[in-house]
Amino acid sequence: MLNLQAVNHFYGNQHSLWNVDLVLRPGECIGVLGREGMGKTTLVNCIAGHLPVASGRMTWHDIGAPPQDLTPLSAQSRSAIGIGYVPQDKRIFFPTQRGREPAHRPGGRETRG
């Protein structure tokens, strides 16, 4: 279970997340909706450990284990316990060429267009 309690984040003086509370139980799937600049990506990056939390608490609770405070953990440590995300950005499939053929073949040979 993922539990966020009063999580806040700032970009400099800009308060970007305001006292966010969230509970995500095992097997649940949620969507975070909002216009551009509303903090969706910031929230995900804070959960994944890519951005620091200014205040509040984030805990991870595996079944049969005590809750673990995520706040001080690095992104790598969070990934090791199963926290991560797949970005929507199309650049995760780079490099590609027209027609979605791989830009490089196995063995290091380049394709010809």
Automatic annotation (TrEMBL):
Coiled coil: none annotated. It comes from the Bacteria. Residues 94-113 are annotated as: Disordered. The keyword Disulfide bond does not apply. InterPro entries: ABC_transporter-like_ATP-bd, BCAA_Transport_ATP-bd_LivF, P-loop_NTPase. Keywords: Amino-acid transport, Hydrolase, Transport. Its EC number is 3.6.3.-. Residues 19-97 form the ABC transporter domain. GO terms for biological process: L-amino acid transport. Pfam families: ABC_tran. One of its GO terms (molecular function) is branched-chain amino acid transmembrane transporter activity. PANTHER family: HIGH-AFFINITY BRANCHED-CHAIN AMINO ACID TRANSPORT ATP-BINDING PROTEIN (PTHR43820:SF5), HIGH-AFFINITY BRANCHED-CHAIN AMINO ACID TRANSPORT ATP-BINDING PROTEIN LIVF (PTHR43820). Belongs to the ABC transporter superfamily. This is ABC transporter. It comes from Klebsiella pneumoniae. The gene is lsrA_1.
